Amino acid sequence: MKICFTVIGRTTDKHLKALIDDYTARIAHYTPFEVVVIPELKNAKALSPDMQKEREAELLQKQIRPTDLVVLLDEGGTELRSTEFARYLERKQHAGTKRLVFVVGGPYGFAPAIYALAQEKLSLSRMTFSHQMVRLFFVEQVYRAMTILRGEPYHHE
Asked: Each residue of 73-104: pLDDT tens digit?
């Protein structure tokens, strides 16, 4: 199973980018993992929030294949403990999922078309984080899940 992490806009903070790249490289030792960056919209400030979500939806839809399992990282999603997330990934792999696509939306969230396209929603926390931080937290959790599934000492419980 390939895990695809799709985000809108590049990571602008060099320190966060270095950490994200580090965890991305670590994950690659366990499973195929790809970060897909959809470019930020041009002149986004001239667009209403709904128009921004619609334009981002058009770009996101171009990245998603009909056979993908799409999971939105969304504040209204299900919260999982790290061990539960590890089992979640394991179940998806055993179910024969070819490409598991996790998506972080733009600053205003997702358009209705993207909610309709997604099969599931997960939340990293009830707290609000910047989209830049969410990227780091998510890749760290994927790495943690991989170590949990292999019984490695990274995670302590």
From this structure: 999 999 999 999 999 999 999 999 999 999 99
pTM of whole model > 0.85? yes
Structure token digits, residue 96: 């024969």
Two tokens at 67? 């056979």
Token digits for 32? 């195929």
CATH number, domain with residue 101? 3.40.1280.10
Q: With b meaning 16 or more CB within 10 Å and e meaning fewer, what string describes 25-46?
A: ebbeebbebebeebeebeebee
Question: What does the block give as tokens for 118?
Answer: 């997604």
Domain count for the chain: 1
Residue 134, CA distances (Å) to 1, 43, 129 in order? 23, 24, 6
- Does 107 reside within a domain? yes
- Per DSSP, the three-state class of 97 is coil
Segment 123-151 mean pLDDT: 95
Q: CA-based angle 116:122:128, to the nearest 5?
A: 110
Segment 32-63, tens digit of pLDDT: 999 999 998 888 788 899 999 999 999 999 99
Q: Is 65 left (phi over 0), alpha (psi -120 to 50) or beta?
A: beta
DSSP letter at 29? T
Domain that holds residue 52: 2-149
